[in-house]
């Protein structure tokens, strides 16, 4: 299995531009998670999906952030418009349903907003 | 105050040393406790998983949970340079297994 796949790996953009991050979860996994990691705040859960349905988006910082999961093998996290404080590493993770809480993380997208 | 506190380090030890990494937490509802290892420029990977209190051992790694003190530990025996990474504790409440709360991570360097 290829694991969780994220693209792009690096993104540099200017303030005000739209940014779209992409994720392909591990095949067969029921849950998909989007996290943001910064030095100051660590790893924070933004939103998660179960069977393509958003379950909890309480971690999404503001309306500039949106996430979709149109099918079981693809999800996007969009920031519009982007701001310098959005600079962080964004991780996607997925897991199987059931009791064990093991989440498998992708390699992350390093976003820099100038 | 953060729900999960973790000393950021960096922690530098010689090869072969025993390493102790710790987290404290404030939410008594947490029942599931995990340790993730994150190498530089990589995503976190699950290292240890425990439910409720007690010890769990896996090779050179031992995870301990003391719910009465709201304190968890990860011990690494015979540390190797390949153990150099950032170690993140994570935890979740019963029924809330999808909402992991992470510590900010402790950076460990094992020197030859």
How would you describe the overall organization of this protein?
The complex is a heterodimer of chains A (114) and B (112). By secondary structure, chain A is mostly beta strands. Chain A contains no helices and 11 strands. In chain A, the strands form 2 sheets. In chain A, strands 2, 4, 5, 6, 9, 10 and 11 form a 7-stranded mixed β-sheet that branches. In chain A, a hairpin with a 2-residue loop joins strand 7 (65-71) and strand 8. Chain A is globular. The relative contact order of chain A is 0.34. By secondary structure, chain B is an all-beta fold. Chain B is 0% helix and 57% strand. Chain B is built from no helices and 11 strands. Chain B has strands at 4-6, 11-14, 19-25, 30-38, 45-51, 54-58, 61-66, 71-76, 85-93, 101-102, 106-111. In chain B, strands 2, 4, 5, 9, 10 and 11 form a 6-stranded mixed β-sheet that branches. Chain A binds chain B through residues 4, 31, 33, 41-45, 48, 50, 55-56, 91, 93, 99-108, 110, and chain B through 32, 34, 41-46, 49, 88, 92, 97-100, 102-105.
